[in-house]
Design brief:
Layout (H helix, E strand, L loop, with lengths): L17 H28 L6 H29 L3 H11 L11 H28 L6 H26 L5 H7 L1 H13 L14 H6 L3 H14 L6 H15 L1 H32 L2 H18 L7 H29 L5 H30 L1 H21 L12
Helix pairs in contact: 1-4, 1-5, 1-6, 1-7, 1-10, 2-4, 2-14, 3-4, 3-7, 4-14, 5-11, 5-13, 9-14, 9-15, 10-11, 11-13, 12-13, 12-15, 14-15
Length: 407
């Protein structure tokens, strides 16, 4: 049986529903706050003498902590038939990132980021399940593409705010500003998001639900997991760019350039997300996603070369933006195609958990190889596993796509 998806007259499908818009706004403001802090984290970390290992540990532990509740909370939302309360609590806890302003040791950054990421982990898969339920199955690509685009607009605004304030106010005061978008997300989750009415399933048990997930979905998650083992945090790219540029331009100018490159990365990320979602509704999503994985491997290979040429560095960050726009939209949209309505919470929890543990291991291992051996060793490790994940997707042949309910 062909593994392609045929979609008729996609432009006539109503996809920009109240929930799609509200969830898009949630992602916009949440990422504004989170990326504002992330953009200056490498620069702030230098004041504590932290390098690639410290940054890799912060990112890795954060991703691991986010996985603690991903599986359980998403499964719980399937059991109780409600997703909105989890979203409200999750966005409230995530807003704690602004507390970076008060730390005096780098391990305190780890603790605060871990707590904030627990909230992020609790609401992420639940939000994705609610988004998938808020549109017809033929519009999953556009819905997730829109959400990713809004998420990335926030990822542009956050670093742009930080960029404009570096050297004008202290980094600690910049962290405090992130409380504002965090508060807005709590208001949106409380008053704009609407729960999709679903019957509760109190009989569900988490391990039984995991075993019952469709085989094509489990094979898909395996390929995602291999890719995730090499998919390190992009803050390491910023750290490397700053290190390369500092001898030539000085610490402050290099820090601003590093944040500027990250903004460029996010502009590309935002620009490509929705068009990729539209493309994913017209052709098979797995081919697009496999190409995104391959782009990450190519980016790692290019970044092995030491250069202070801003054009070359910009190309690397542009490739990173293209890759993440593809992956963030297609991974979740493809999961929606493979999961029946009754298993969406559990399925998205499984996908998010696998991604989190992959990010934990990759960020720490790449950071260790980068610091203890060479940055080339860290990037070679990442390139190998991300390209392997791409190959696995290319050869993967799902038996069928499970029909999904339309709303």
């Amino acid at each position: 049986m062909s593994d392609s998806i045929q979609v008729s007259a996609p432009s006539k499908i109503r996809w920009l529903t109240r929930n799609v818009f509200a969830i898009g706004m949630l992602s916009l403001f949440s990422d504004t706050g989170h990326e504002l802090t992330t953009a200056i984290l490498p620069l702030f970390l230098q004041s504590f003498g932290g390098g690639a290992i410290a940054l890799g540990t912060i990112e890795g532990v954060s991703d691991a902590s986010s996985s603690l509740l991903k599986m359980w909370m998403s499964h719980y939302s399937d059991r109780v038939g409600k997703r909105k309360p989890i979203l409200i609590i999750g966005y409230l806890v995530t807003a704690l990132m602004g507390c970076f302003a008060f730390v005096t040791r780098w391990w305190q950054l780890v603790a605060i980021r871990a707590i904030a990421w627990i909230g992020r982990g609790a609401r992420g898969p639940v939000r994705d399940a609610l988004l998938a339920e808020s549109v017809p199955s033929e519009a999953h690509g556009r819905a997730f593409g829109f959400e990713t685009a809004m998420d990335t607009v926030g990822a542009i605004l956050g670093p742009a705010i930080a960029f404009s304030l570096i050297g004008i106010i202290s980094l600690r005061h910049i962290f405090l500003i992130s409380f504002i978008p965090g508060a807005i997300t709590v208001l949106i989750a409380s008053f704009l998001v609407k729960d999709i009415v679903r019957p509760p399933q109190p009989h569900l048990k988490i391990w039984g639900s995991l075993r019952a997930l469709p085989k094509p979905f489990l094979l898909y998650v395996s390929a995602v997991g291999v890719f995730g083992l090499g998919n390190f945090a992009h803050t390491l790219l910023v750290l490397r760019a700053i290190a390369l540029l500092t001898p030539r331009y000085g610490a402050i100018s290099a820090g601003r350039m590093g944040v500027g490159l990250y903004i460029l990365h996010n502009v590309i990320y935002a620009a490509i997300s929705y068009p990729i979602g539209v493309l994913g509704d017209r052709m098979h999503k797995k081919w697009i996603l496999a190409c995104g994985y391959a782009l990450f491997g190519l980016m790692c290979i290019l970044f092995m070369y030491s250069t202070t040429n801003l054009v070359v560095l910009a190309v690397v960050f542009i490739l990173a933006g293209i890759y993440i726009g593809i992956v963030d939209s297609m991974e979740r949209a493809l999961a929606a195609d493979l999961l029946p309505l009754s298993q969406r919470g559990t399925g998205y929890g499984a996908l998010a958990t696998v991604n989190s543990f992959g990010d934990l291991l990759s960020s720490i291992l790449v950071g260790l190889l980068w610091n203890r051996v060479s940055y080339t060793a860290g990037l070679s490790y990442a390139a190998f596993l991300t390209l392997l994940g791409s190959i696995l997707l290319f050869v993967w042949k799902p038996q069928r796509f499970i029909p999904t309910a339309s709303h």
